[in-house]
Amino acid sequence: MCGAEIPFAKSSYKFEGISSIMNPKIILDPHFGVTLEEIESKIKGKVFISEKSTFLIKGSASLEDIYIDGVCKIEGNGHFKGIDIRDKKYN
């Protein structure tokens, strides 16, 4: 997607007895961009969203050097740079 690295799931997950391939869930607010050209203009550097991630972006923000492996919601109109989101595991 527009220069971002977004791998697709290679294995299935089982939930409540149902197997399904779960790819990343990415939701782009129309203020972020509607056309491919608008979206491409807002993504710079290395952007990675893992196959198990959920990512929501609201507003007219721009992204640069973002790593998401988990759940991330970005709201606003600023420049978001150097964000590193990873799920924490608790025992």
* Main sheet attributes: strand count, strand direction, barrel closure: 4 strands, parallel
End-to-end gap: 35 Å
Order of helices and strands: EEEHEEEEEE
- Classify the helix fraction into a percent range: under 10%
What are the segments in which pLDDT stays under 50 over at least 5 consecutive residues?
Answer: none
Radius of gyration: 14 Å
Let me know the average pLDDT.
86
Shape: elongated
Tally of DSSP helical segments: 1
What proportion strand? over 45%
Total domain units: 1
Q: What is the total tally of β strands? A: 9
Explain this structure to me?
With 91 residues, the protein is mainly β. The chain has one domain (20-86). It has one helix at residues 36-41; strands at 13-15, 18-20, 25-28, 43-49, 54-58, 62-69, 71-75, 79-81, 84-86. It is elongated and about 40 Å long.
What is this entry, summarized?
The protein has 91 residues and is mainly β.
Write the layout of secondary structure elements.
Elements: E1 13-15, E2 18-20, E3 25-28, H1 36-41, E4 43-49, E5 54-58, E6 62-69, E7 71-75, E8 79-81, E9 84-86
Parallel strand pairs: 3-5, 4-6, 5-7, 6-8, 6-9
Antiparallel strand pairs: 1-2
